[in-house]
Every structure is written in structure tokens, then in C-alpha cells.
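User: I need a structural model of Bacteriophage N4 receptor, outer membrane subunit from Escherichia coli for a docking pre-check later this week. Nothing fancy, just the predicted C-alpha cells so I can convert them on my end. Input:
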Amino acid sequence: MKISRCLPRTHQEKSWLYLLSKYSANPVQALANYTVQFADNRQYVVGATLPVLLKEGQYDAAQKLLATLPANEMLEERYAVSVATRNKAEALRLARLLYQQEPANLTRWIN
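Assistant: Understood. Predicted C-alpha cells for Bacteriophage N4 receptor, outer membrane subunit:
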């Protein structure tokens, strides 16, 4: 498939996601339950819904949403969920990855 054919569809899906996020009775649930076709739009859905899920303490839903992304994306958010769910092994693993990426921010991950 040519990339020029995908771009309009990606944009159409993003427009649909925007409408869901603005006009659904429960925007977070509508976005979280939508099966996204394009990776960029998946990032949009996670970015729009994850903060609300974390604030509401819906950690299972947050983990499920993060699982739709590649494992190396949104490490800070994954770390926050692992700390909130008291998953010490996962929190340590993610803290190490974050430290490898930004050694100067060590105190940021332990506080």
C-alpha cells in the first residue's frame, strides 16, 4: 500500500478520535475501547486517556492501554503505574531503563 493512501486514513481516524474525545458521554471509556489502526493515533489515545485513568486509580485499565504500545515507549508512565500497583520488580526494571536514558535524573525516579 502506498503511503499517500494511508495518510488520509490516518487523518480520518484521528478526526474520529477527536470527535469521540469531545462529544462522547464518557470520552475516556470511548477512546480506551476504540480499536486504533494507526500507531500515531494509538499514541494520541494513550496520551488523552492515561492521565485520567491514573488520576482515578484505574491501574488495570492503564496497564492494558500501555500494553498497546511498544515496550520502550512511555517508560515514565509505565514506571508510575508499577509504583502505584506496588510491582517492585517492574518498577526497578523501569527505573534502571530510565536511568540508562537519563543518568542525571536519578533523584527524579526515586522520590
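Before docking, keep this in mind: The CA atoms of residues 99 and 108 lie 10 Å apart.
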